[in-house]
User: What shape does this take?
Amino acid sequence: MKLKKSKYQIFTETLEQLEQESVISKEQKDHMVGHVEPLSFDWKRLARFSFVIAIICTLISFITLIEDARIMKAIIGLFSDNQLILSGFVGLLSLGFFYSGWQYAKKFPLRVFSTETIHFFGVILFTTSIGLIANHYELHYVRDHYWFLLPSIISLEIAYLVKSKLIWIFALLNVGGWFGASTGYWGGGYFLGMNYPLRFVLLGAITFLAAYAFKKNISRGDFYGPTKVIGLLWMFISLWILSIWGNETGWNDVSHIDQLYWSICFAVVSVLAIYFSLRVDDGTLRGFGLTFLFINLYTRFFEYFWEGTHKALFFAILAASLYIIASKAERIWNLSLTTKKATE
Assistant: This one.
C-alpha cells in the first residue's frame, strides 16, 4: 500500500505513539509499517492538474477561434440558412463524446481523469448546442431563463451518473448563473428585498447545507467537497461585497450604518465558521472562516483609515499588524515542532 509522504509520516508517528503507550507491540508496528510505503511522486495529482490545464487551453483555443472574424464569417455563411443544422451537428458531436467516454471507461476503468475529460467536452458541446438553439429562436438569457436551466440540470445528472467532480462544478456554476438571471427577471435589482450579493449569500448557505446530504451518501460522497467549497465561496464572497456596498444597488446609496451592520454580520459568520470547524474538525470550513475574517478586518482598515491617514503611517501600521500575525503563527508552529520532538 502506498501513501502520500505527509500521510505516511502521520501513519508512522501514530504507530510509534501507540507502541510507546503499549497499545501495540514493536512486532505489530513493524508488521504494519512493512505493508505501507511512501509515494516517491504524486502522479495522480500531476495527471489531474495536467488534464485540467489541457481543458483550459482547449477552451481558450475555442474562444480564440470564435473571435476570429474570418473563420466565424465562413461558419455563419455555411449555416446561414438554419442555425438548427449547426446545433444538431454540435449536439451529435456531444453524443459522440458521451459514447466515447462510456466505452473508454469500460475499456480502461482506472483511467478516471481521461474519462472525465472526455465527458466534460461532451457537456461543453451539449451546452453549446443549446446556446445555438437559443440564438436561433432569439431567446434572452434573462427573459427566457427557464430554457437556460435545462443544460444545468442535464449536466448535474451526467456528473452524478459518471461521478465527475469537474462536470459537477461546471453545472453548479451554471446553476448560479441561472439563479442570478431568473431572480433578476423576477425582481430586477431587488428580489424579495434582496440585492444580488444577498441572494447569493442565501444560495451559498443552501448549497453548503446541501453538501452534507452527499457526505451521508456513501456512493456519491465525492461531491461533498466541491459542493461545500462552491457554497462557501458564494456565501463568503457575497458577504464581503455586502460589507462594502450593503443591501443597495449603487455605491452612492450606501450609508455607514449599513456598512457597519453587514461588516458585523460578515464577522459573525466567519467566527461561527471557525467555531463549528473546530467542533467537527473541518479544515476547509476553518480556512474559509479565518481567511475571510482577516479579509473583513483589513477591508475595514482600508475603508476607515485610507483617506485620513498619511500613507507612510498607513502602511507602517499594516506591516506591523502582519508582522504580529506572522510572529504568532511562527510561535505556534515552533511549539508544535517542540512538542513533536519531546514525544520522540
Summary: The mean pLDDT is 78. The longest strand covers residues 2-3. The two ends are 25 Å apart (CA to CA). DSSP finds 13 helices and two strands in the chain.
